[in-house]
Every structure is written in structure tokens, then in C-alpha cells.
Write a structure and sequence with these properties.
There is one protein chain. The protein has two domains: about 70 residues, SH3 type barrels, CATH 2.30.30; about 60 residues, no CATH class. A ten-stranded antiparallel β-sheet has the order 4-3-2-1-5-6-7-8-9-10, with no helix packed on it. By secondary structure, the chain is of the alpha+beta class. The protein starts with a helix and ends with a strand. The protein contains two helices and ten strands, in the order ααββββββββββ.
């Protein structure tokens, strides 16, 4: 009886290994209004995100305003209203999610000036609502 139980458990575990859905094996995705698309790679165009290849081998091109969020190289980027000097700019930007706790999320946004100097800005959001800009002071 013990051998048959152990054999049954091993057979079910072995069958479960090969029945893993495709979306669990892909680490990168793009979220749009119509849902989540799991992809193998993401490349960027000037005005578009170009999804080089989905898990099924299909190539897609999406406009920036169609994309709500994406995950690339283990980092999650979400399109949120961008705030500069406390004022909301007209354009949205993709902010990198750094930390989440108790409904608050800290996002990072990198900018480069004309000489190539990098500036890192941090913003605190509660859900999709801007709370404040986080500074070193």
C-alpha cells in the first residue's frame, strides 16, 4: 500500500512538471488594456515599444500609449503621470518600481541632460495616485 501511494505521488508530480503553463516560464511581459502578453524579448523604437518575439514566435509592435506596464530584465516599469517640480507634466513616463509596502510604491525615474549627466528622481505613489517626490533632505 505504501509503495503504491508513493508511486502515485511520484507519477502525479512528474506529470505536473510537464504541464506547467507557458506564461510561468516567461519572465518578461507587457500589460495592455486588453490583457497581459508574455514575451521572450522587448526592444524599443523611437516612439513605439517593439516586442521582438512572443512566446509563440509572433512579432508585435505596440504604441507607447497602449502599454500600461512591462517587465524587462526582472524590473517592473509602470506608465504613470510624471511630476516635475510638483506639477504634473502632460506626458506620461515609465517609472521603475523599486519598493512596495502597505499600499505605497516607490518609483525611480532616470533622466540625462545634454552633457550625459544622469539624475535619479524618486516618487512615492499610493496606488496610481501621486503622493510626493522623495529627496535626500
Amino acid at each position: 500500500m505504501k509503495k503504491s501511494t508513493i508511486t502515485l505521488i511520484l507519477v502525479l508530480a512528474f506529470a505536473n512538471v510537464f504541464s506547467t503553463p507557458n506564461y510561468l516560464t516567461s519572465s518578461e511581459y507587457v500589460e495592455t488594456e486588453s490583457g497581459i502578453i508574455f514575451v521572450k524579448s522587448i526592444r524599443y523604437g523611437i516612439n513605439n515599444f517593439i516586442i521582438a518575439e512572443t512566446d509563440e514566435g509572433v512579432k508585435l509592435t505596440l504604441k507607447q500609449n497602449e502599454v500600461k506596464s512591462y517587465k524587462k530584465d526582472g524590473k517592473i516599469f509602470k506608465q504613470l503621470n510624471f511630476y516635475k517640480n510638483g506639477n504634473m507634466c502632460a506626458a506620461c513616463a515609465f517609472l521603475e518600481q523599486v519598493y512596495t509596502k502597505a499600499g505605497y510604491t516607490l518609483y525611480k525615474y532616470l533622466t540625462y541632460n545634454s552633457s550625459g549627466k544622469k539624475t535619479t528622481n524618486f516618487y512615492l505613489f499610493k496606488g496610481d495616485r501621486f503622493e510626493k517626490r522623495v529627496t535626500k533632505d
